[in-house]
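Annex B, item 7. Sequence and structure tokens for protein A, then protein B.
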Amino acid sequence: MHRLLPFWIALPALVGCGSDATTPPASPGNVTLAITKLLPQDSLTWCSESAPDGDSCTARQPEPVVIGCDRELGVTVDVQNFSLRVPDACGSSLQCGFLSLTLDPDAAPITVTGAAKTLLFDLKDLHTQGKLDGEHVLRPALFLTSDHPFTHPFTADPVDLPVTFQAVPDADCAAASGGTGGKPGSAGTGGTGGSGGSSTGGSPGNALGGAAGEAAGGAAGDTPGGAAGEAAGGAAGDTRGGASGQAGASAGESGGG
């Protein structure tokens, strides 16, 4: 005959199984986070000291970062052993979250966030305020949730990147923009073609006047008589074209005769 054990005797075993099921997953390894590249203009790449030597760079730290006419700056980071996801989409994963980049964190901070390794800063307001040119600081960070930063384990603590911004002058941007606008201005040259139209209008006008003069003079000469032919041919000739109009008038006279 089997005897049932009291419930409290079996309780530790049940609790023990539950604790095994809630054991946190193992870390995939220490996380790496560093700013490696800045993208200030099309086809230009500025590389920091953290960028691999084999990367293609048009400028390197500590050279100034020349900000283009659109006043935007792309910032690329190296992230390892950390999954980038939209905020609050990682569940129980310990090394998963989103990237945060802050410009001038200790002054007037501008922060952008996202789930990509390259994020874009809009610096138009900073330029308008006259604060774009000069020394700045970029700070990278990782967040597990919107209010919970990732703090460890890192291979090395992320560091701020000091940079010097130098904006392309507004006058150069305006000149480049105006040059592009000059192409539609050639439609204005088409307007000059309008003066060509006056010459086109002139010669065909004379021919038309002459033909009209002759036709008008001839018809008028045949029908009403010479004087009417002269008047019709002369008027048409004077209006549409000189020499041909006179020819129209002569034709009118001969038609009238």
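Protein B:
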Amino acid sequence: MFSRFWNRLPAILRGILVAELVVTIGTIPPSIAVILNLRMSPHIPWMLIVTAAWLSFFWWYVGGHGWPRSTQEARRRELRAPSVSKHAWTWALIAGTLGITGTIAMAFVTARLAHLPREAFTAQMDFSKYGALTVICAIACISATDCLPRFQAFDR
């Protein structure tokens, strides 16, 4: 019954639903790891290990490995992504980190220029109470988590 309903949906709608599912599955576990790490043990940035492990598994799975075998070929075919070199991956992480940093900086500049109340741009977390290594690791995890699942979901 589900497959009949699914096949009746327009292809564009199926594409959007699958892309959103892929992004959600790819981003939620690392995001939870970052939040738990900051709340439970902020002095030990174990979020990097969890994020790297999850994203490696995620990429392996969407690349056509694992269960169920019936979808392996479709996942392999639809990934359409060449292996990323270490050099390119390093620059992608740097670019993502700079992008997030630039966005945060623009939020502060906007608040000053637009004379908005300071509360309009307050972060939900106070990063000033964490060490520099923890903050850098959190930004790196967020950058990597934002990059990989979206690349798989929307690179068509």
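Comment on protein B: The mean pLDDT is 85.
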